[in-house]
Write a structure and sequence with these properties.
single chain, 452 residues, four-stranded antiparallel β-sheet, disordered C terminus
């Protein structure tokens, strides 16, 4: 599939699950490189998701079904006008996609295959690229968005938009939750965004140039791994800028979608990857002293811990387990190019932008499941054994451990965040959103900065 027109013509069947495997693979491949068609797919998916999954459901009455069928049988398709052929525009392609999607839904409704649903009251996510677990809540970051790029999904399922000014469309590469705050990497705007979960607003930002790709927060410090400049940036000590730049690899030119690396705090040390050199680095807990370098080969992009052991994800199709000396003790090969990793119970979940989520049994170190979605970008474990999947086409998906959708009747609620417990914790200073100090003293537990 080489053109946008071909992709948009195939989108309705793809989103309705009627496409062949070959057609689906072609669509996924095109969406991975085309932001315009990705946005088109997200819009079509929003309508389909809203119709299929909004609550409450009410079975269509027999009389309505009969009227719909009678109306459809009585209608005649208008004859097309004879007009000179013109090149197809994006609008006409989109119109065909909407029409096909509408016909598919109408046919299913008329046949009684779909229940009638009400539209959800809260906003619908059209795209999700990074998801962060924050207790019983999640934060969703959307790339290529010029505004409203952050959303909080509260414990009751309500979606809450977060106001955030940005100079250019965001490109989120990762995020973590610590001390009542979500920290998110926006590589396009070269910054770390700090979101106060209790208040539902952005407290501020910290500059992170060099292709910010990996993130960890530990003991009041924020660590950022830059994929392009090959550095580990450390923030802390009451300063707005990085207090140290630890050089780990030679700078290299990388496209925005290739900004991939991981950072993990484990056993009193920091681990980080450099996928361009096939290395994993071990540093002191303050990020300023390089202790060891492990040559694992491939292109390591993500790190996780399981039972005190280090897991390394290679985007070239490997999941590795390393021992304390950096030797690979177990390895499993997976199909595709997985670039994000999360552990839930005894399983590792790997996302691949080409469409698949792969499950690895960590006790046996074998692949147990591989399921296709739209364009999976990130996955995170949630309380109660559930998962949240960020998909650039299908938005936010709440999943069971077997990757099936969480039933509507199953509550994802847990104990709400105790905001007061976080207000006196130490936290790194950051530039206040919009350049205003605001009430930083109550938020950070330190005197506010003076802004000119």
């Amino acid at each position: 599939m080489n053109t946008c027109e071909e992709c948009r013509d195939a989108l309705p069947a793809f989103l309705l699950g009627d496409a062949t495997e070959q057609e689906a693979q072609s669509v996924r491949g095109h969406l991975a490189t085309c932001p315009d068609c990705t946005a088109e797919a997200a819009e079509l998916s929003r309508v389909l998701t809203g119709l299929l999954h909004a609550a409450p459901e009410v079975a269509p009455p027999p009389a309505l079904r009969a009227r719909l069928l009678a109306s459809a049988a009585a209608s005649e398709a208008p004859k097309p006008l004879s007009l000179p052929a013109a090149p197809a525009s994006r609008a006409s392609s989109a119109g065909r996609g909407w029409a096909a999607l509408g016909l598919g839904l109408a046919a299913a409704l008329g046949a009684g295959l779909l229940a009638l649903n009400l539209w959800p009251a809260s906003p619908v996510l059209r795209r999700a690229d990074v998801v962060v677990a924050a207790g019983s809540q999640v934060v969703i970051a959307t790339s290529n968005a010029s505004r409203d790029s952050l959303t909080i999904r509260r414990s009751d399922g309500h979606l809450e938009r977060v106001s955030l000014a940005q100079a250019r469309p965001a490109w989120y590469t990762g995020g973590v939750f610590e001390g009542g705050r979500a920290y998110l990497l926006d590589a396009a705007n070269e910054r770390v965004v700090v979101l106060n979960m209790g208040r539902g607003r952005v407290e501020g930002t910290m500059p992170a140039p060099g292709g910010a790709a990996g993130l960890a927060v530990l003991g009041g410090r924020v660590f950022v791994k830059t994929a392009a400049s090959g550095e580990l940036l450390t923030f802390g000590g009451g300063t707005l800028n990085a207090v140290s730049h630890t050089s780990l690899a030679a700078p290299t030119q990388l496209a925005q979608h290739d900004l991939m690396d991981g950072v993990l705090a484990l056993n009193g040390q920091l681990y980080t990857t450099q996928h361009t050199t096939g290395q994993v680095f071990v540093l002191s807990d303050d990020g300023q002293k390089l202790l060891h370098t492990y040559a694992v080969g491939g292109a390591p992009v993500a790190l996780e811990a399981w039972k005190g052991r280090l897991l390394v994800l290679d985007v070239k199709g490997r999941l590795l387990e390393l021992n304390g000396s950096g030797r690979i003790v177990r390895e499993v090969k997976v199909v595709g190019t997985p670039d994000k990793l999360s552990v839930q119970g005894g399983s590792a979940y790997l996302t691949d932008r080409s469409g698949a989520v792969t499950v690895v049994d960590l006790a046996r170190f074998t692949v147990t499941q591989r399921k296709m979605f739209g364009t999976p970008m990130d996955i995170v474990a949630l309380p109660g054994g559930h998962l949240a999947l960020a998909d650039a086409v299908q938005g936010l998906l709440m999943l069971m451990p077997d990757l099936s959708p969480v039933p509507e009747t199953l509550s994802l609620k847990a104990s709400p965040l105790d905001v007061s417990a976080f207000r006196n914790q130490s936290a790194p200073l950051c530039a206040a959103e919009g350049g205003q100090g605001g009430d930083q003293e109550s938020v950070f537990g330190v005197p506010p900065l003076s802004w000119s």
